[in-house]
Amino acid sequence: MSAEGLSYAAAGVDIEAYERALEKVKPLIAATHGKEVAQGVGPFAGLYALPGGGHLAASADGVGTKIKVAIATGNHRVIGADIVNHCVNDIATAGARPLFFLDYFATGKLDPAVFTQLIEGMTEACRSAGCALLGGETAEMPGVYALGDYDLAGFIVGLVDAGARREPAREGDVLVGLRSSGLHTNGYSLARKVFEGVALTPDLSAALTAPHLSYLADMGRLRWKAAAHITGGGIPGNLPRALPEGTAAVVNKTAWRPNPIFAEIRKRGGVSDNEMWGTFNMGLGMILVMDPKDVPEGALVVGEVVKQSGPERVELH
């Protein structure tokens, strides 16, 4: 049955409420920072200065309610890879190479087969990223998690080498998009609401369990100034985090075609255009800010950096 006008907030996730709550607690967080903290809350990764001149980059994240899709399809290995790749991408925006990763797995009752799949996914992704799965925590909490349910979070630390410097983004730079495989690990509460009661065909299962891609190798081959990992909040919510004050981004929505799963969500759920772009990555998992002269032939140019002329930091055309 088709629903009308579904939204992320109506599905139980209110991003704006979270942002208001975060603004209230930012002073508490900042009060813990000493001179070693070079970058705190706001960007995709925190930066901690090392005595030798380099920086440790750190991030923590989860995979959201994609876990429910994994439970329904029996594909848990992708969740293990997803959590590593999500965290790798976050610190990659700081130009960091991953050093080590830790996980937190919580469940009502441990299912060894599920746990093994998750570890297989995590170790494969860690090997691809060149980082160690250093350890973690496994917690059984009956009464907190229903039998069969679980949660998975990841924590990563990487290194930005001493002397590594990037030119600041500026007006006239271009935006280069790196394509996503689909939803990655964001927007699943809304997507699950849209497909509630719908039979999971092989094609739909494949679309909903497409892996969260790692962009570490692609970013290592390109000369970029700043990067935005497009996760919860979509392009409007994430791209400004890569732009300096006084600048904005103009994004050409016709420069690429989003994955078919997004059109299916929009149509079946009656989801508005603004809701789609403010919730999902819409086909781009990473956006790089680059000098036009550094853009290689064949790259997907999706917009440009302009001088900010109003309150909006991202214009979608």
First and last CA, distance: 32 Å
Strand content: 15-25%
Number of strands: 12
CATH evolutionary superfamily of the largest domain? PurM-like C-terminal domain
Strand order of the largest sheet: 1-2-3-6-4-5
Name of the top-level CATH class of the largest domain: Alpha Beta
**N-to-C order of helices and strands:** HEEEHHEHEEEHHHEHEHHEEE
Poorly predicted regions are none
Which topology of the largest domain does CATH recognise? Phosphoribosyl-aminoimidazole Synthetase, Chain A, domain 2
| Estimated helix fraction | 25-40%
Query: How would you sum up the global shape?
Result: globular
CATH architecture of the largest domain: Alpha-Beta Complex
> How many independent structural domains?
2
Average per-residue pLDDT, rounded, comes to 93
Largest sheet: 6 strands, mixed
Kindly provide the radius of gyration, computed on alpha-carbon positions and rounded to a whole number of angstroms.
Answer: 20 Å
- The SS-based structural class is alpha+beta
**Tally of individual helices:** 10
